[in-house]
Structures are given as C-alpha cells and as structure tokens.
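Curious: why these numbers?
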Amino acid sequence: MSESRHQVIALQVADLIRDIQQNPPTDIDAALTELTESGVTYIPAAQHGGITIASSDGKLHTVAATSEVATLLDKIQQRCGEGPCLTAAWEQHVTKIDDVEIEQRWPAYCRDAREETPVRSIMAFQLYADNKTMGALNYYAEEPYAFDADAIEAGLIVATHTALAWNLLRRDQQFRSALASRDIIGQAKGMMMERYKIDAVQAFEVLKKLSQSSNTPLAEVAREVIQSEHPVAD
C-alpha cells in the first residue's frame, strides 16, 4: 500500500472523528461500529471487524461488530479464556494470526474458530488500557495470510484514530452522566426540602447519609427518593 493511500485513510478517519467532536452521538456503540466498519473498508483484506472490551476478571464484551462472525469469535474467546484479541488487549499492542489452521498459540480458540467460523486470518490492535479494562480493535479475513505489512500499517492508523474517538466518546458520556446525576440529585433535594421544610444543605446531608448507610451511589438514592411516594428522612 502506498504512502498516499495511508494518508487518505488517515484523513478519512480523521473526518469521522471531527464529525464526532462536532456532533457527539448519543449511542456510543453505534459510533464505534461505524468506525469499525470504516476499517473494513480501508483494509482491503478485512471482511469482518469488531471491538472487544476485556475486564480484569476475564469477562469479554463486544461493543462493536460488523457481523455475527466478529461477535461469535468474542464468544469463543470468552469460552476458551484465550485468543488474539485478549492478547492484544492485555499483553501486546498488535497480535496477528496468519492461519488458524496451523497457529500454535491459543489452541482451544483456534480449534473452535476453525470449526465454527469461516475466519482464517486475524489481526488485533490494543485501543486503550486502564487498571480494570482494556480494549482491542479486531479485523478478520476468510483467507489465510490475508494481512500483510501494509494491512497492519493501515490497521494501526485506524486503531490510533479509533482510540482517540473512543476517548472522546467516553468523556462525553461521563459528562452527560454527571449532568443527569446532578439533575436527579437536585430534584430529590427539592422534594425533600418541600416535604420536610428543610434547606438545600440539610436535604443534601440527608441524601448523603442515606447513601453512606446503604452503600448506594448518591444518584441512585436520589432516584429512589424521587420514585417513592413517601421519601424517608434520616
């Protein structure tokens, strides 16, 4: 693949991210799926793609998939407790299988992948990592030795931009969640102030004590107060 082709890929993905910045989507999974589908378009050998989240307790979650094949391969990894996407997420930045028929790593995963899917080539890229979870961007092909050095380079471009977009989406989601929690807490405070003739500080202290005594998040306590016909003060 020529340098100009890589530049085109980078510009096109950058345009998608710019659109996300200007018009933040409400459905993060849908936005990530769009980015993953873009990668299938930019990497000629790729036929399927997906994004996997791996948690430290071994659980997997597919947050984006261009086909049922990508989702099934995550289920196989979950079942076998091994696979290239897990390795990419936790141990390496890039992992590649040239042919699942002869791959010696992850024997249980490769066996089930051969038996249950048409996929023969896989490449996976680490997207992000924190103390609890990691993410990987995965591309699959039904031909062996489908992903050469150019495909890996193109995948790295897509993965880098996808990681940036994911960070933007997560921050936007956290901001929206914080605003929603603030509104819920404010509504609960107002109800308690009216019902019990207390001020805003006292109402917040009651909510805080209820949260601490029940080991329940403050926003959830506020939601329960709102839903209850008879809020109970401490």
Notes: The chain has two domains: 1-171, 176-229. The chain has a mean pLDDT of 81.
